[in-house]
Amino acid sequence: QNLKTMELIELDKKHYIHPTTPPKVQAEQGTPLIFADGKGVYCNSTNGERYFDGLSMLWNVNLGHGQQELAEAAKEQMLKMAYASSFKGYSNEPAIQLAEKLAALAPGDLNAVFYTSGGSESNDTAFKLARFYWSLKGQYKKRKIIALENGYHGVTVAAQTATGIPAFHDFADSNIADVFHAKPHLTNCESGDRHDPNYEGCIRDIVEKEGAETIAAVIMEPVQGSGGVHIPPKGYLRAVRKLCDEFGILFIADEVICGFGRTGEMFAVEHWDVVPDLMCFAKGVTSGYSQLGGVMMKQSIRDTIVQYEGVLSHGFTYSGHPTACAVALKNIEILERDHIIENTSKMEQTLKEGFNYLEDKHSHVTNCRAIGLLAAFELYEDRDTGKLFDLSVAPATTVVDECFDRKLILRTLGSNREIVAIAPPLVINKQEVEEMITIIDDAITAFEKKLE
Ligand code: PLP
């Protein structure tokens, strides 16, 4: 470690409480890496070492690091007017232009947007808007929210409750009432049957038990991200859409990871031709260059809301932030101009070839999957019988650590620490995908040696 890095580590230990990190370990051992700068899929530490960012940081740096045009868009807007309030109906040019652009891009008639500054705020906003909508319709009992086990929706109090990963519920005992979790993608909830891939049986069970007249919305990620990169069976989202229509329930798609090209479509719901009632976004809308999120809503919801004569008592200081919106506009312009989504689909194929190679070579590798550049593979003790390693082995953690030692950043997921998640910047090229696969190959070999 150079002197500057050592000093920074000491200050970090003393003054900085990190999110989603064991605080004791952090305070005692310090941060493993201090980022300094980056270019494309690579980033450099203050120690002068180059890392491959195989997760686009937190699944968000879609255009990669060091994108000059995004920085210039921010600078230009900041010099004109960095911030402007959206309260009392005030508005600003980038926010208006972005709203129009989003309406044009979003599927179906998702024509209006409520801006936030991140994913959790977007999901909390969606829950409030759903309840507000039903109360405007005179359906005051429709308050309950159904989410999926393994779903991740953020850490504000309502989003945390909707998150279906138990660790987040345990933190600080701060859940809200009226949120239910269904097992995802199951035909029969009790038997765990997965025979009919179209079936939404577990959600239906909850609706029938609680009564549709009490349910405001169903929320899900089209492809679960932090819960383990779970791609739904082909007909699943459509079946959920149908169920929501049947019972008069709003369908909220959480596109916070999936949106803006990550899965090889602008929005993941487009893979299955589904139009949600509310669609939450954040992350990729600015490629992480500025903090922005939002909720798109269907024309009929927008039309109902604008009938309300009182004040919409919800909003954030940074709702419609002009600099963030200017960055988003430039980000979308580059996505389209440079055919980044097409590149994502091409690189998905290269990544899948890499997965085939890894599966052939390493007997513990299984369940490889990718939709666009949202990908994962798993490590089982016996992949033929589906036998997991003991939790103490934490195979994915070992492989991810081995990758880190070889300067590739990936992430461990899954309750048995069996899933390795991969989500590189969408600007990645073939050679870089192959570089990632080579490092993963070496890391798995090192893991296998440890098992001997
Ligand atoms: N929804 C999904 C699907 C996410 O992956 C995340 C963050 O990872 C969130 C919501 C929360 O977003 P934020 O961390 O910006 O609040």
Structure, described:
This protein has 452 residues and is an alpha/beta fold. The chain has two domains: 33-66 and 339-451, Aspartate Aminotransferase, domain 1, CATH 3.90.1150; 69-337, Aspartate Aminotransferase, domain 2 (3-Layer(aba) Sandwich). The protein is 40% helix and 16% strand. The protein contains 15 helices and 15 strands. The chain has helices spanning 3-15, 23-29, 56-59, 68-81, 93-105, 119-136, 157-162, 166-170, 201-210, 236-247, 299-305, 322-337, 340-361, 395-405, 430-451, and strands spanning 35-39, 42-45, 50-53, 110-116, 144-148, 179-182, 215-220, 250-254, 278-281, 293-298, 365-371, 374-379, 408-409, 411-413, 419-422. It has a seven-stranded mixed beta sheet, sandwiched between helices. Strands 1-2-3-13 form a four-stranded mixed beta sheet. β14 (411-413) and β15 (419-422) form a beta hairpin. It binds pyridoxal-5'-phosphate. Residues 58, 118-120, 123, 152-154, 221, 225-226, 254, 256-257, 282 line the site of pyridoxal-5'-phosphate.
Name the helicity range: 25-40%
Please identify, by name, the CATH architecture of the largest domain: 3-Layer(aba) Sandwich
CATH class of the largest domain: Alpha Beta
Q: What oligomeric assembly is this protein in?
A: single chain
What is the spatial order of strands in the main beta sheet?
4-10-9-8-7-5-6
Low-confidence stretches: none
Ligand names:
pyridoxal-5'-phosphate
Mean pLDDT: 96
Main sheet record: 7 strands, mixed
CATH T-level topology of the largest domain: Aspartate Aminotransferase, domain 2
Number of domains: 2
What value does the Rg take, in angstroms? 22 Å
